[in-house]
Amino acid sequence: MWSILLWIGLTAALFSPALAHTGVGQIDSFASGIAHPLNGVDHILVMVSVGIWGVLAGGRAIWAWPVAFVATMLAGFTVAALGLQLQWVDTAIWSSIVIFGMLIALAVKVPVWLGATVTAVFAFFHGHAHGTEAAGVNLIAYAAGFACATAGLHLGGIGVGLFADGSGGKVAVRTMGGLAVLSALGLMGGLT
């Protein structure tokens, strides 16, 4: 029950603008790096979902998938900060919410390496979006801040997943995946 309430609270952010896009907000310090992922529902949904999916898979996935996400996100950030532009960044970000939500809702289990690969691909695009936003600012401090916030959101997802698992809430966790998909579709449809 508590896990569902937590997820509903996170998705309630749909009624405020997501600050996950280029040119929004101050992006010049460690503190702004920490704040940035916490100000966009897209970031929150993806990061928490990676943690929850890791718990559903169990074993090494619990830590390997969040680590793969943070490491590859920093690589995407670096590529963008160096000026390499990619197509489909926004599409990949929104798709990541839908994909991770479906993986949770359907309780999909894959080998750890495959889950890390899927996680890393989407993380690269999330990092690229951060790097594009941060061009010309204090890059190292900002990157360290958003990496820490991302890891914290992953830990939050792991905590939600472990709590639900320990209290027999597998159905609640899978429902959270479905809510993430619906939230992403709402965001893509312009409900914010």
List keywords for this structure.
192 residues, mainly alpha, 8 helices, disordered N terminus
Structure description:
With 192 residues, the chain is mainly alpha-helical. It has one domain (27-188). It has helices at 2-11, 30-38, 41-57, 61-81, 89-105, 112-133, 139-166, 170-188.
Describe this structure in a few short sentences.
74% of the residues lie in helices and 0% in strands. It has 192 residues and is mainly alpha-helical. It has one domain.
Report the biggest beta sheet as strand number plus sense, adding barrel if it closes.
none
Outline type: globular
Counting copies of identical and different chains, the oligomeric state is single chain
The tally of structural domains comes to: 1
Mean pLDDT equals 81
Task: Report helical residue fraction.
Answer: over 70%
Number of strands: 0
Overall SS class: mainly alpha
**Could you tell me how far the N terminus lies from the C terminus, measured between alpha carbons in angstroms?**
26 Å
**Low-confidence segments:** 1-24
The value of Rg in angstroms is 15 Å
- The number of helical segments is 8
Q: What share of the residues does DSSP label as strand, in percent?
A: under 5%
H-E order: HHHHHHHH
Q: Any chance you could write out the topology, listing elements then pairs?
A:
Blueprint: H1 2-11, H2 30-38, H3 41-57, H4 61-81, H5 89-105, H6 112-133, H7 139-166, H8 170-188
